Amino acid sequence: MHRKFIAFIVATAITITGVSASQARAADAKDILGGLAAIAIIGAGVHYYNKEKRKNRSTRHQTYTPQPYVAQPSYPVRPLPQHVARYDLPQQCLRTYNAYSNNHPLLAPKCLKKHYKHANSLPQECKVGFWNGNKVKRAYEPACLRQKGYRVVYK
């Protein structure tokens, strides 16, 4: 778009210059025709240049080379700050209890005490009790803990 505009300006300038100069010399018909021929030659050159450029652009194929997939680690590269890491519960403590539900895992309290140093500060309202046939077992409900801001992560 800019090249066409510049070509138009140059052609106009040459035309005006040629006409002004030829009028100053008594306006010969040969001079006017010579100026118009020069403008036509310049215009044809600009047109040819733009045509070749468009042709090369349309025939040139850009090949897509996919970048190899680099898996990002699912754990943070830097250790989390203490006030944030405190809410990360170890995934290894998830257990399924037949007496509670076969497909609904709970967080085992003994495992949490062993692998999570803030186990004593977990909310007690998320602790559920269920009868296993011999005694009442207790464990933490992950959905309740999630609502309180905790998350189960691979450690």
Describe the structure.
By secondary structure, the protein is an alpha+beta fold. 46% of the residues lie in helices and 17% in strands. It has 5 helices and 6 strands; from the N terminus they run H-H-H-E-E-E-H-E-E-H-E. The chain has helices at 2-24, 29-59, 82-85, 109-115, 142-147; strands spanning 88-90, 94-97, 101-107, 127-131, 136-140, 151-153. The strands form 3 sheets. It has a two-stranded parallel ribbon with strand order 1-6. It has a two-stranded antiparallel ribbon with strand order 2-3. Strands 4-5 form a two-stranded antiparallel ribbon. The chain is rod-shaped. The mean pLDDT is 77.
**Beta-strand fraction estimate:** 15-25%
Helicity, as a percent range: 40-55%
Element order: H for helix, E for strand? HHHEEEHEEHE
Q: Tell me the strand order in the biggest sheet.
A: 1-6
Largest sheet: 2 strands, parallel
Residue-averaged pLDDT:
77
The quaternary structure here is single chain
Cα gyration radius (Å): 41 Å
Poorly predicted sequence stretches spanning 5 or more consecutive residues: none
DSSP E strands, number: 6
Query: What is the rounded distance between the termini?
Result: 59 Å
Structural class: alpha+beta
Number of helices: 5
Shape: rod-shaped
